[in-house]
């Protein structure tokens, strides 16, 4: 299933910038920006939203992310004027527009269906404390000790590896996306430093710099393959 993503913002710069950012991690996903008013001002445009949905009409489904309340109202109005078959394929997410778009785009890039893409976008709604607390128990040290996350006892781990980040920028956005896309290829449940390796926002929240230790653990039938692939990816420096 192909899933296109429409970004609706009161600002053309925010919409286009969000699309540009997401494309760095999801080059094969159809992403369209619908920002600002028709005369270039701050606001939303019925015509731009409608045109954006039409541009994504070749996708099996369309996920729309909006920045503020009135963007949802304009989107709802545009949906009312669509043909029934098109409207049935459009899904509006209430996730934060930037983080939600990036997470949704990576999910779509990895072959997720519309439910998976919407679920990925929803992960962006987690609070900053929830996203970063597990990786920063000391308050300011990225990559510090990770407390028990409740993901399962250690003896459930079928495969594991520990490796250091060698790329200059550490586990920032693009490497994090590559990590998630690789983990998503396997059925195994994979954790990295205690967080879900298939959650882009969870991985990015770790904020691991060059030299940080990456602990990879996996359970499932292809756990060893998943760990081997992720360890090789980290050792390669993500191609940077």
Biggest sheet: strands side by side, in what order? 2-1-3-4
Sheet of most strands:
4 strands, parallel
**Class inferred from helices and paired strands:** alpha/beta
Average the pLDDT over all residues and give the rounded result: 86
**Molecular shape:** elongated
Number of helices: 10
Our measurement of the CA-to-CA distance between the termini, rounded to an integer number of angstroms, reads 31 Å
Total strands: the figure is 8
Rg, rounded, reads 19 Å
Overview of the molecule:
The structure is a single chain. With 240 residues, the chain is α/β, with parallel strands linked by helices. The chain is 40% helix and 17% strand. The protein contains ten helices and eight strands. The strands form two sheets. The protein has a four-stranded parallel beta sheet with strand order 2-1-3-4, sandwiched between helices. Strands 5-8-6-7 form a four-stranded antiparallel beta sheet, with helices on one face. Strand 1, helix 1 and strand 2 form a beta-alpha-beta unit. The longest helix has 13 residues. It starts with a strand and ends in a 5-residue tail after the last helix. The relative contact order is 0.13. About 12% of the residues have low confidence.
């Amino acid at each position: 299933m192909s899933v296109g993503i429409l970004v609706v913002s009161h600002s053309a710069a925010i919409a286009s910038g969000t699309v540009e950012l997401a494309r760095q991690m999801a080059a094969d996903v159809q992403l369209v920006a619908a920002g600002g008013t028709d005369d270039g001002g701050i606001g939303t445009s019925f015509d731009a939203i409608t045109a954006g949905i039409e541009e994504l009409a070749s996708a099996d489904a369309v996920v729309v992310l909006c920045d503020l309340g009135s963007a949802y109202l304009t989107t709802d109005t545009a949906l009312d004027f669509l043909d029934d078959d098109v409207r049935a394929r459009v899904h509006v997410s209430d996730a934060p527009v930037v983080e939600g778009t990036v997470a949704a785009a990576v999910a779509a890039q990895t072959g997720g269906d519309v439910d998976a893409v919407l679920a990925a976008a929803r992960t962006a709604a987690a609070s900053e404390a929830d996203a970063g607390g597990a990786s920063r128990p000391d308050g300011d040290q990225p990559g510090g000790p990770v407390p028990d996350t409740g993901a399962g006892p250690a003896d459930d781990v079928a495969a594991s590896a520990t490796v250091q980040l060698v790329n200059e920028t550490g586990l920032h956005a693009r490497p994090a996306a590559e990590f998630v896309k690789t983990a998503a290829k396997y059925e195994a449940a994979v954790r990295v430093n205690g967080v879900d390796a298939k959650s882009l926002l969870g991985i990015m929240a770790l904020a691991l710099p060059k030299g940080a230790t990456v602990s990879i653990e996996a359970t499932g039938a292809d756990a060893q393959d998943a760990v081997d692939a992720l360890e090789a990816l980290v050792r390669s420096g993500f191609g940077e």
